[in-house]
Specification:
The chain is globular. With 885 residues, it is of the alpha/beta class. 42% of the residues lie in helices and 7% in strands. Helix 3 runs antiparallel to helix 12, helix 8 runs parallel beside helix 11 and helix 25 crosses helix 26. A hairpin with a 4-residue loop joins strand 9 and strand 10. It is built from 32 helices and 12 strands. The strands form 3 sheets. Strands 1-4-3-2-5-6 form a 6-stranded mixed sheet, sandwiched between helices. It binds adenosine monophosphate, zinc ion and manganese (II) ion (MN).
Length: 885
C-alpha cells in the first residue's frame, strides 16, 4: 500500500511539472503567434523594437493637449537677464577677442563623444569656464510627435564635443545654468529652432546669443545659410542632404559625425569674422557719434530676441483643424479636382475626420503627423471616399490584412499606423464616429483605454487624463470600466490569463485633497475623503473624481518637504512599463527578509510595494532571486537549509550558526525536485555524467550522504505546500496522501491559497487590506514556483501573519528562504543596527531599479527613501488619530 502511494504521487508530481511548463510555453507561443500574424488589433508598435525616446525618464513635453510647462510658469525664466543684454553693447564681440585657434579646412575634425554622465559633468565643468562656445543641435522628427534633440554639438576654442542627447536625455539639464549664464556668449547659426528645442527637451534657456545668421542679415550678406558661410569663410563644403538623415542612429556613421562636428567647429571662427565686419561697419558708417556700434548691437539684439521666444505646443480648436483647412484650401484651388457640391461637402467632412484621427493617433503612438499619413494620402482617400460614397467601405474588413502591404484597394497607404488599426479607420470613414467627441472616445477607449491595443508611454499617458479632453468634449469619455470597442479577434490565452490575475478594481483611487488655498495636497481614496468630510474638516469641491478642500491649515505642504511622493497620483499602472490592464503587487524587499524586520521599520510599506505587470514582475523577480544568491554568499548564509535526514532522525532543522556552514548556496526545491524526478524516471538510461550531477544535487540536500530510491521519492515533494499536494491529488482524482514528515508544519497553513497578486490599497498611511484576488488554479509559474519555493514555502509571506510566523518558526516551511532571511536580518541588526536594515533596503531598491529601469515610479520614489514624515494634527496619517477602518 505504501508503495502504491509513492508511485501515485510520483505520477502526480510529474504531471504537475508538465502542466506548469506547458502552460507557460503555451502563453509564450500564443504571444508569438499573434505577433507574427499581424492582426489588425495588434498595434504595429508591438512588433517594432522600442523607440529610443521610450527610455527617457524625464519628458518635459508630452503629447497631451495641455500646454508646455516652463521652468517659470508664465514668463520667460531669464527674461530680465536677456532684456539687460538687449540694452547693452555686446562686449565680448566688440573686444576683438580671438575666438578660434583651430586650423581651417581640416581633413577630419577630432571630437569627443560624450554619452555618459561623468563625461557630461566634466564637460559642464569645462564649459562653465569658457567665455564663448558654439552650439548646434540635430533633432529627429519623423518617429516622434513633437520631435526630440538627438545630438548636440558644442565647440570651444580648444575642443569639439558631440553630446549624445538621447543617451543623456535625462541629464542634459545640468547645462541649464551654463546656457543661462550671461557672462558666456553662445554662438549658434540660425538658432530659432535650437533655442526652442533646448527648452522643450531640457529646460535649457539660451542667454547671451550670437547668431551668425542674424549677423548675415544685418550685414546684408547675399546668403545667410551656414553652407554659404562655411564655403566663403573656411573653404569647407557641406553636404546638406545629411541634415535629413536619421540622427537617432547609434553608432552614427563616420560621415554624419564629421558633418555634425563641422556644423559647430567653424562657428567660432565665422563669428569672429562676422563680428569684426560688424565692427568695421560701425566705424565706417557715419552715424551720430553716440550710436557707435549700431551694427554689432543690432546683430546682438536680433540674436537675443530669439532667446526670448518660448516653446509652446500648437493649439487648435479641434485636433487636426489646421491641416484639414490647408488640405481643403488646396483642394478647392486645384482646378482638376472639382467635385459636385454634395461630394465636396463629403470630401471636406472626410478630410476633417481623417485629420482629427491622424492628430490623435500621432499623439497616441508618438509619431509625426506625416508618419501617420501624408497630406497627399489624406486627399486621395477623401477624394475616393467622396466619389464612391461611404457605403463601399463595407468591404474593408474582409481584406486580408498584412501590415507590410498596402492595406486596401482604395486606401492607398503603407502607413503602419493605419494598417494595424484599420478597423478603427474603417469605422471612422464609415461615419460611425459622427463628432469629434466620438473620435476621441473611439481612439482613447480602443487604443489606450481599458481594452487598449497600443502601448502606454510617458508621451501619451496624460492623454488619458480628463483634462486633456476638455479641448473639445463636453462629456469626457470614461476610460476605465467602459465597454470595449469592437476588437476583432479572439483573445489570446495570455490575455485571458492576464484578465484572471489582474486587479479587478483600481488599487488606488484618484481622489484629491486640496489645501484651503486651493493647492493640491495629495491623492487618496474615497474613505479618506469621507473621514475628513464626516468630521466637518473639509468641504467637497469636485464631484468626479471627488475632491475636497480642507477647512483647516494643514501642517506643511508636500512641496515644503521637497518630496512629491505623497502628492503623486498613484496610477493604476505597472511602474515598470506603464501597462495598465494587469498588474501584480511586487515587493521590492523580499518577504523573507522584510518579515523579520523590527516593527518600526516595516511601517513604510507603500514605498516598497509597487504594481508590476506580469512581464515586469518576471524580470524584477528573477533579478531579486539572483541577488538573494549574492546576499547568501556575502553573508555566508545559504538560501536553503541543508536537510539532514538520518534513518533514526526523521527531520532536523539546521540550527547551526552561520559561520559553521559552508558558503555555498543550498539546493533549491525546484532543482531538487527536477533532479529527483529525472533520476527516478530515467536514472537507468541517462548518461552517467548527468546521473552523477543530478545525484550530487540530491545528495547535497541530504547533507552529502548516500541516497536511496526512497530519498528520491521524498525529495519530489520538498517545498510543496500540503495544500498544493492535496489540491493536485484531488484534481487528478488521486487519494490525498501525505508523504513527507513535514506534516507538523502544515497545520497552520490557511486553507485557501491567498495569492498576493493584487488588491490591497497602497495608500500611504491607509494600511488597509482589501480586495485580494483569490485564485484557485493556474497561477503563473514564476509566481507559483518562485514565491512558493523561495520565499517561505507556504505562501504566508506578506500576509498579516508574517509577524506571527517570524516568532513562530513552525509557521514557515524549513525549505523556503525564511530561515535565511531571518539570519541575514539578525546579522544586520547585530552588526549595524537599524541603519544596517535601511541600507539593506536601499540595496534592494537599487537592484530593482537596475534590473527593470522602471519608467513609471511615483515622482518622489527614490532608492534612498528614509520614510520620515511628520503628520499634522488632523491628518489621517497621524498615528495619534485613530484612522478610519
Ligand atoms: P541644422 O540647423 O542644419 O543643424 O539642422 C538641425 C535639424 O533641423 C536637423 O537635424 C533636422 O532635424 C532639421 N532640418 C534642417 N533642415 C532640414 C531640411 N531641409 N529637411 C528636414 N529637416 C531639416
Ligand atoms: Zn497602436
Ligand atoms: Mn546641424
Amino acid at each position: 500500500m505504501e508503495k502504491m502511494k509513492v508511485a501515485l504521487s510520483i505520477i502526480a508530481a510529474a504531471l504537475l511539472t508538465v502542466a506548469i511548463s506547458s502552460y507557460w510555453f503555451r502563453i509564450k507561443q500564443n504571444k508569438e503567434k499573434t505577433k507574427k500574424k499581424g492582426r489588425s488589433s495588434i498595434c504595429y508598435l508591438e512588433r517594432e523594437s522600442s523607440k529610443p525616446q521610450e527610455k527617457f525618464k524625464v519628458v518635459l513635453a508630452d503629447n497631451s493637449y495641455s500646454q508646455f510647462k516652463h521652468l517659470n510658469v508664465n514668463e520667460h525664466p531669464f527674461k530680465e537677464q536677456i532684456e539687460q543684454i538687449l540694452a547693452t553693447e555686446p562686449q565680448l564681440l566688440a573686444s576683438g577677442f580671438s575666438f578660434f585657434d583651430g586650423t581651417l579646412q581640416e581633413d577630419s575634425i577630432e571630437f569627443l563623444w560624450v554619452d555618459t554622465q561623468p563625461q557630461l559633468e566634466l564637460l559642464a565643468d569645462v564649459l562653465s569656464k569658457q567665455i564663448v562656445f558654439a552650439v548646434d543641435t540635430e533633432q529627429h522628427s519623423l518617429r516622434s510627435f513633437l520631435g526630440f534633440t538627438a545630438l548636440i554639438q558644442i565647440s570651444t576654442k580648444q575642443q569639439d564635443y558631440l553630446l549624445d542627447s538621447i543617451a543623456l536625455h535625462d541629464h542634459i539639464g545640468i547645462l541649464t545654468p551654463i546656457f543661462a549664464n550671461p557672462a558666456i556668449t553662445k554662438v549658434f547659426h540660425g538658432a530659432d529652432n535650437d533655442v526652442l528645442w533646448l527648452q522643450r527637451d531640457f529646460h535649457i534657456y539660451v542667454v547671451n546669443l550670437f547668431d551668425t545668421a542674424k549677423a548675415c542679415d544685418v550685414l546684408s550678406k547675399p546668403q545667410r545659410s551656414l553652407a554659404y558661410l562655411l564655403q566663403s569663410y573656411c573653404g569647407v563644403s557641406k553636404n546638406k542632404l545629411l541634415q535629413r538623415e536619421d540622427w537617432r542612429q547609434r553608432p552614427l556613421p563616420a560621415e554624419m559625425l564629421q558633418y555634425a562636428s563641422t556644423d559647430s567647429h567653424y562657428l567660432l571662427y565665422i563669428a569672429q569674422c562676422l563680428s569684426s565686419e560688424l565692427k568695421q561697419k560701425d566705424s565706417e558708417t557715419p552715424l551720430c557719434p553716440d550710436d557707435k556700434s549700431h551694427f554689432l548691437l543690432e546683430a546682438s539684439r536680433r540674436s537675443n530676441s530669439t532667446c526670448l521666444q518660448l516653446f509652446s505646443k500648437e493649439v487648435e480648436e479641434y485636433p487636426g483643424e489646421s491641416a484639414a483647412s490647408s488640405i481643403v484650401y488646396h483642394h478647392l484651388s486645384d482646378q482638376d479636382s472639382l467635385l459636385s457640391s454634395s461630394s465636396e461637402s463629403q470630401f471636406q467632412d472626410l478630410v476633417r475626420r481623417i485629420c482629427a484621427w491622424r492628430d490623435i493617433m500621432a499623439r497616441v503612438h508618438d509619431e509625426s503627423l506625416r508618419y501617420v499619413l501624408s497630406e497627399q494620402e489624406i486627399t486621395a482617400i477623401a477624394t475616393k471616399g467622396a466619389a464612391t460614397g461611404i457605403k463601399s467601405y463595407d468591404t474593408v474588413s474582409e481584406v486580408d490584412l498584412n501590415a507590410d502591404s498596402t492595406c486596401v484597394y482604395f486606401i492607398q497607404t503603407q502607413s503602419p499606423v493605419i494598417c494595424s488599426h484599420l478597423i478603427d479607420f474603417e469605422e471612422l470613414l464609415q461615419g460611425k464616429a459622427s463628432s469629434h467627441d466620438d473620435i476621441f472616445q473611439m481612439i482613447f477607449e480602443g487604443h489606450l483605454g481599458s481594452t487598449r491595443t497600443c502601448p502606454i508611454s510617458l508621451f501619451n499617458y496624460s492623454l488619458l487624463s480628463k483634462g486633456s479632453l476638455q479641448l473639445t468634449s463636453r462629456s469626457a469619455p470614461k476610460i476605465n470600466g467602459s465597454k470595449a470597442v469592437k476588437q476583432g479577434g479572439r483573445k489570446s490565452s495570455r490575455q485571458l490569463f492576464v484578465q484572471k490575475f489582474s486587479c479587478k478594481s483600481p488599487v488606488y483611487h484618484n481622489c484629491k485633497i486640496y489645501a484651503n488655498d486651493g493647492r493640491l495636497l495629495c491623492h487618496c481614496d474615497r474613505k479618506k475623503l469621507e473621514w475628513y468630510l464626516n468630521r466637518d474638516l473639509a468641504k467637497l469641491v469636485e464631484d468626479d473624481p471627488p475632491a475636497i478642500m480642507l477647512l483647516f491649515e494643514p501642517k506643511g505642504r508636500p512641496e515644503d518637504e521637497g518630496n512629491d511622493f505623497y502628492i503623486q497620483s498613484k496610477k493604476n499602472i505597472c511602474v515598470g512599463c506603464g501597462e495598465g490592464n494587469h498588474y501584480l503587487r511586487y515587493r521590492i524587499i523580499p518577504s523573507c527578509y522584510r518579515m523579520h524586520f523590527p516593527e518600526q521599520l516595516k511601517s513604510h510599506r507603500s514605498h516598497d510595494i509597487v504594481l508590476l505587470c506580469v512581464d515586469c514582475h518576471e524580470v524584477a523577480h528573477a533579478a531579486a532571486e539572483r541577488y538573494k544568491r549574492l546576499i547568501a554568499k556575502e553573508f555566508q548564509i545559504p538560501l536553503y537549509i541543508h536537510h539532514v535526514l538520518n534513518s533514526n532522525e526523521p527531520e532536523k532543522t539546521s540550527g547551526l550558526p552561520a559561520s559553521s556552514r559552508n558558503d555555498e548556496v543550498g539546493v533549491s526545491p525546484l532543482h531538487l525536485r527536477a533532479a529527483a524526478m529525472a533520476l527516478l524516471h530515467h536514472g537507468q538510461t541517462m548518461p552517467s555524467k548527468r546521473r552523477k550531477e543530478l545525484t550530487q544535487t540530491v545528495m547535497k540536500y541530504y547533507g552529502g550522504r548516500e541516497i536511496c530510491e526512497h530519498d528520491l521519492e521524498q525529495a519530489l515533494f520538498v517545498g510543496m505546500t500540503p495544500l498544493e499536494r492535496r489540491r493536485f491529488m484531488k484534481k487528478r482524482g488521486l487519494p490525498t496522501i501525505q508523504i513527507t514528515s513535514n506534516a507538523r508544519n502544515e497545520k497552520n497553513v490557511s486553507p485557501t491559497r491567498d495569492v498576493r497578486i493584487s488588491g490591497t490599497q497602497l495608500q500611504s498611511g491607509g494600511g488597509r487590506e482589501s480586495a485580494v484576488c483569490r485564485t484557485e488554479t493556474d497561477i503563473p509559474p514564476h509566481v507559483v514556483s518562485e514565491s512558493v519555493d523561495s520565499e517561505n514555502g507556504n505562501l504566508s509571506n506578506g500576509t498579516k501573519n508574517t509577524n506571527a510566523s517570524a516568532k513562530n518558526n513552525s509557521k514557515f516551511s524549513l525549505l523556503g528562504h525564511g530561515p535565511h532571511g531571518k539570519q541575514v536580518v539578525d546579522s544586520l541588526l547585530k552588526e549595524h543596527g537599524e541603519e544596517g536594515i535601511r541600507e539593506f533596503c536601499q540595496r534592494w531598491r537599487q537592484i530593482f531599479v537596475d534590473s527593470l529601469h522602471p519608467r513609471f515610479l511615483p515622482a518622489g520614489w527614490d532608492v534612498q527613501h528614509r520614510g520620515k514624515r511628520d503628520f499634522g494634527e488632523y491628518s489621517v496619517f497621524n498615528p495619534a488619530n485613530k484612522v478610519y477602518s
